[in-house]
Amino acid sequence: MTACAIEGGTAGAATAADPGPETAGPGPDGPGEAEETGGRGGPGGVGEPVGAGEAGGAGGRAPGAPHAPDALTLTADGAYGARLTAAPVPPGGQRAWYPERWTLDGPEPYAVPLPLNQPEEPDAQVVPLADGRVLIRRRVADRQMFSLLYPTGPATGELALGAVECEGMVLLPPSPDGRSVYGLTAGDHSSLLWLVAGGSFGPELVAEVPGHCSGGVWLDRAGRMLALDRRPAGGGPVKAVAVDLERNGEVTPLLQIAPASDDRLLLADPDSGLLLIRSNAPGHDRLGWGVLGSCLPVRFPECLRPADGAVTPFAVQPGQMLMPESCAVALRVDGPAGSWVGIWRPQGRRLHQFAAPEGWSAGAGFWTRDGVLHLPYATPSTPCGVALLDAPGDEEPPPEPGGTADGGRGTEPSAAAAPPAVCKPVPLGQAPLHRVASTD
Fold first, then answer.
1. CA-CA distance, 409 to 136, in Å (whole number)?
2. Which of 189, 262, 297, 368 has the largest count of CB atoms under 10 Å?
3. Does position 120 have pLDDT exceeding 50, yes or no?
4. Per-residue DSSP letter, 295
């Protein structure tokens, strides 16, 4: 289960391999050219293109920073969201945090506050479930306490699930099955994966993964295959691995771009197999893409490294079966002036940049199958809103400086180089490196 090399590079040519059967289920030219599109809804000029140095929307946390209060977490299908939010602060008073659930799949979005008898700590973490309940993780001394919250008329109901004795835990993104929530406790020598909601008897230890793990990306729609970014116990580069939750946490390699590179998986689309990867194999951290199960190398498009911003993907258009290059990808662009929205397709070779709605929960959003991006936001006048942005069309751009007419070399944002004659996923040490090199 290995993946992937740099297109046209010298780091070697491994492949993006399938994790196994599913039984259940600052470029030289600066930012890419922005184009007009039919953006709809939302304040703050959402849908208006922005150029280099223009930011739409308020600034947010830097990529990779911990979730902070007011950050919105969405279910895998985008039907519900949950966040910690603050009650109005009286003069001289102290800010009080409480959970809030957003319903996003109806004709009008709305938020339901879920306060209890005392305010929550700002380091509490909430995750929505597909049935409308919200899981909350609280730290109490050296224990992590878990409860399910739900509205009961004017009050909030709470179902205690149990606790795990550990100093720190991070809840992973909601499982695609809508019922399960997993937590990760990372140590220097091993990391523990816990099922904290959806089990039979409270929190359950489901896997121990050697090394220090972080991240968390789902590779299928059944909630079986989970990708984690792992640093070996003895030190070394970070490599993404796949954890099979139906085989007692069996771990297999997922990304192998170069022996000494840090290769992290940021996002995966189970329908098309599209993978969004961050790696320093090109010499410094770059955002690239590959295809799960493909023998083609990872590509690192120039348009995905704008000179004035850091780019982080947060949503992939679903339903594009076996068509990874046609998937629209939503990206958060963070720059000195704030955060705005980028939209890109692998086949389009261009980063479209748009102003975000005022009050956008930066990095939160989901696609519909027909290519409409939903961006949740909150303002004093609209405490729960969703702005809609149509994915722009792509026209074939002229070749970039240093590229070829067909764009099939180097790190250009292009179609793939010619595949090796034997198109079969193989481990890195057995990959046909000479055949990829010969395409240059």
1. 48
2. 297
3. yes
4. -
Mean pLDDT (whole number) for 325-341: 93
Answer whether residue 245 shows pLDDT above 90.
Answer: yes
Tell me which residue of 206, 194, 196 sits closest to 244, measured CA to CA. 206
Radius of gyration in angstroms for the set of CA atoms belonging to the chain, rounded to a whole number: 22
Q: Helix and strand tally (H, E) in the chain?
A: 1, 27
d(C-alpha 6, C-alpha 300), whole Å? 7
Between CA 141 and CA 275 the distance in angstroms is 39
Sheet of 170-171: strand order equals 170-171, 181-186, 190-197, 204-210
Q: How many CB atoms lie within 10 A of CB 390?
A: 16
Claim: this prediction has a pTM higher than 0.85: no
Nearby residues of 369 by Cβ (< 8 Å), 6 or more positions away? 317, 318, 319
CB 63, CB 332: distance < 8 Å: yes
Q: Over the stretch 6-18, which tens digit does the pLDDT of each residue have?
A: 443 433 333 344 4
Stated as kind and residue range, the H or E segment containing 351 is: strand 351-354
Q: Who wins on pLDDT, 81 or 397?
A: 81
How far from 366 is each of 13, 98, 303, 307, CA to CA, in Å?
A: 33, 24, 22, 26
Tell me if 328 sits within 8 A of 317, measured CB to CB.
yes
298 DSSP 8-state letter: B
Which pLDDT score, from 0 to 100, does residue 348 have?
A: 84
pLDDT of residue 438: 37
CB 75 within 8 A of CB 88: no
Asked whether 127 and 170 are in contact (CB, 8 A), the reply is no
- What are the DSSP calls for 3-68, one per residue? ---BTT-SS-----------S----TT-SPPP----EES-STTTT-B--TT---S---PPTTPPP-
